[in-house]
Design brief:
The structure holds 2 protein chains of 2 kinds. By secondary structure, chain A is mostly helical. Chain A has a single domain, classed as ABC transporter involved in vitamin B12 uptake, BtuC (Orthogonal Bundle). Chain A contains 14 helices and no strands. Chain B is mostly helical. Chain B has one domain: ABC transporter involved in vitamin B12 uptake, BtuC (Orthogonal Bundle). In chain B, helix 5 crosses helix 6. Classes of the chains: A mainly alpha, B mainly alpha. The interface between A and B is large, with 57 and 54 residues.
Chain lengths: 345, 347
């Protein structure tokens, strides 16, 4: 009798959690679609939703075809994909290293990609896809270097984070130096690699990013259960049957791929990777895996931040400035929350 | 069995570095500093004849060579002061936080000074050098308290990892705010960007003199806190058992360090990693006694920054490499080395 009622309670609570999870993910998806729709239809001028839909269907609508099809759609699409990539890559790192502060933009991967991109643009005067290729390979190279440098009788997460911070500081000073030497005409282009922006987006940029997202993101999401198990600690995860080092390798390669591809196109949009995971964790609670909600929140942050930076503030800011400025209040919030709960970071 | 155990127990408190060794190192460092100062005055983009250098040192500026040398003198002085101040500040911070990775750059203190200065320039129209320094001090102090609070949250207090992460995250947030403030104002963007790299080029005596009183107080407070730092190194409980008021000791020493790095940052811009590298090297040379370590760090820092400045003038001729870049290129690998040497626990 007792056992069956306990079982019922367990089943009921599991069902409740599943319901909450579906609800949360659904709500986030709706919010994302809403912001996407607003980005497409409301800018300096208003385009009626009917016209937006007709443009998306491929019809030629005088006026709207240009504003929506040429200006707003590539930008919104790029923001969406980059946000998904940053959110997913960031949360994977945070789970793996079990520290909300250990996101790729802090441990050097974004700065590796930025340094390569700035070098390619300013010193080698390159343009277009080759810059992305260089940035992605540099991001992967830096990740490997950080991993290798922190290898000593195995890789301790602590050492990996600290080495990453060191590497990142060095690369940032290289970026600052290259920018200080830049001629005025390439400075604007290069400045984007300091803050991150979706200005001047092209549809073909989104295509590469979409492929990367499909491959790397798909692999990460298919391993969501194993990745979530890493939260419990490596030993516990291994006891649950997770192949820890294999999962870790998959996380590093795919998350770096996501972050580097997105960074190569938009520049390091500050703190999206850093903020998405903790926000998602807060909303989802213990109701389910945090990967997918974190990706959705990343996209909400980038699209919302870009919209705010373009239209809601006194002067126009790139999206990276908006999301970066969100980081300071988040850190303060972290202090208040942790000191109230008496927990640990 | 017993003697061996005694030895391992005794080692941390008795570093076993004789006073004579320390005195020898002191002389070596002083000699090195003199040589580097001489090099800094003689070497530059322009080759100057020896006679002109002597004439310039006597105050003549008739030829171009003499004028060039006359420009190098305040620059050398600034590098000396900034190097000494930043290294001393780093050594004090490592003592205060009992953290081998403490450095004004890593902990975000320099970025706090940058943000405050930028806010002051853009919104409050500060122009005087004193206002610059006061703003920088306010920003550094706020950033230091902020980062230390975040870093010491939760279990285990202020571990190296948490402090470094809190510093890095705060730096990113602050630098976004700096960009957000500067971006719409192209008139000041260029000046602020070059200030942000950190350099001693273009120094004049007029620019140096306002920072002197702050540095003087900072040096005095920091050097006088050596004994307190020695007690703090034993751990808070033992230190308070020895009659040290731990919180007061921490606050005074930190105040000295903040004065030093804020005044330096206000004049030179943020120069990173110096405060990390120099105290570690000095600890290898003269041991862990802060009464020796602090003055040695100051001297060593002066040597390193002057050397970095001279190297920066040579490698990129005829252009110059700012010292902020060189210290980062030397310092970051060093930081990684320190991290690798540490026994870190698995997360």
């Amino acid at each position: 009798m007792v056992t069956s009622s306990t079982l019922e309670i367990i089943v009921a609570s599991r069902r409740r959690r599943q319901k909450k999870y579906v609800l949360v993910v659904g709500a986030l998806a709706v919010l994302l679609v809403l912001i996407f729709a607003i980005t497409l239809s409301v800018g300096h001028s208003f385009t009626p939703p009917g016209d937006v839909l007709r443009v998306l269907m491929g019809e030629a609508v005088p006026g709207a075809s240009f504003t929506v099809g040429q200006l707003r759609l590539p930008r919104a699409l790029l923001g969406l994909l980059a946000g998904l990539s940053f959110g997913l890559g960031g949360v994977a790192f945070q789970i793996m290293l079990r520290n909300p502060l250990a996101s790729p933009d802090i441990i050097g991967i974004s700065s590796g990609a930025s340094a390569a991109a700035v070098f390619a643009i300013v010193v080698l005067s390159l343009k277009g896809p080759i810059v992305s290729v260089l940035a992605v390979s540099a991001g992967l190279g830096v990740a490997l270097a950080v991993y290798g440098l922190s290898f000593r009788n195995g890789v301790a997460g602590t050492r990996l984070i600290l080495v990453g911070i060191g590497v990142s500081a060095m690369l940032e000073s290289v970026v600052a130096y290259i920018l200080s030497q830049a001629p005025a005409w390439s400075l604007q282009e290069a400045m984007r690699w300091l803050t991150g922006s979706v200005n001047g987006a092209q549809l073909d940029q989104s295509a590469t990013l979409a492929i990367a997202l499909a491959v790397c993101g798909g692999l990460l999401l298919s391993r969501a259960r194993d990745i979530e198990a890493l939260r419990l600690g490596d030993d516990m995860a291994a006891a649950l049957g997770v192949r820890v080092s294999e999962t870790r390798m998959i996380i590093i390669v795919t998350a770096v791929g996501l972050i580097a591809c997105a960074t190569a196109v938009t520049g390091p949009i500050a703190f999206v990777a850093f903020l998405s995971g903790p926000i998602a964790g807060r909303i989802v609670g213990d109701s389910g895996p945090v990967l997918l909600p974190a990706a959705l929140i990343g996209a909400v942050l980038v699209l919302g931040g870009d919209y705010a930076g373009q239209f809601l503030l006194a002067s126009r800011y790139p999206v990276g400035v908006i999301t970066g400025a969100l980081g300071a209040p988040y850190l303060i919030y972290l202090i208040i929350r942790v000191s109230r709960a008496g927990g640990s970071l | 069995m017993m003697p061996a155990r005694m030895k391992t127990l005794a080692r941390p408190t008795m570093p076993g570095i004789a006073k004579r060794t320390r005195s020898v190192w002191l002389l070596v460092t002083l000699a090195l500093l003199a040589v580097l100062c001489a090099l800094s005055v003689t070497i530059g983009t322009r080759d100057v004849a020896f006679a002109d250098i002597i004439a310039a040192l006597q105050g003549h500026v008739e030829t171009i060579g003499q004028a060039a040398v006359a420009l190098r003198i305040p620059r050398t002085l600034l590098a000396l002061l900034a190097g000494a101040a930043l290294s001393l500040a780093g050594a004090v911070m490592q003592g205060v936080t009992r953290n081998p990775l403490a450095d004004p750059g890593i902990l975000g203190v320099n970025m706090g000074a940058s943000l405050a200065v930028v806010i002051g320039v853009v919104w409050f129209d500060i122009t005087s050098a004193y206002a610059f320094i006061w703003t920088a001090i306010a920003g550094s102090a706020a950033a230091a308290v902020f980062v230390y609070t975040i870093g010491s949250l939760g279990r285990g207090g202020a571990t190296p990892l948490k402090l470094a992460l809190a510093g890095a995250a705060t730096s990113v947030a602050f630098s976004s705010l700096v960009i957000a403030i500067v971006l719409p104002r192209s008139d000041i963007a260029g000046g602020i960007r070059s200030w942000q790299i950190g350099g001693v080029g273009g120094a004049t005596f007029e620019r140096i003199s306002p920072m002197l009183p702050f540095l003087l107080v900072g040096f005095a407070v920091s050097l006088l806190s050596a004994r307190k730092l020695n007690s703090l190194a034993l751990g808070d409980e033992l230190a308070s058992g020895l009659g040290e008021r731990v919180a007061v000791a921490r606050a005074t020493a930190a105040f000295g360090a903040i004065l030093l790095c804020a005044a330096t940052t206000a004049v030179c811009g943020p120069i990173g990693f110096l405060g990390l590298v120099v105290p570690h090297v000095c600890r290898l040379l003269v041991g862990i006694d802060y009464r020796w370590l602090l003055p040695f760090s100051a001297l060593g820092g002066a040597c390193l920054l002057i050397a970095a400045d001279v190297v920066g003038r040579i490698v990129a001729r005829p252009a110059e490499l700012d010292v902020g870049i060189i210290t980062a290129l030397i310092g970051a690998p060093f930081f990684i080395w320190v991290v690798r040497r540490q026994k870190v626990r698995e997360l």
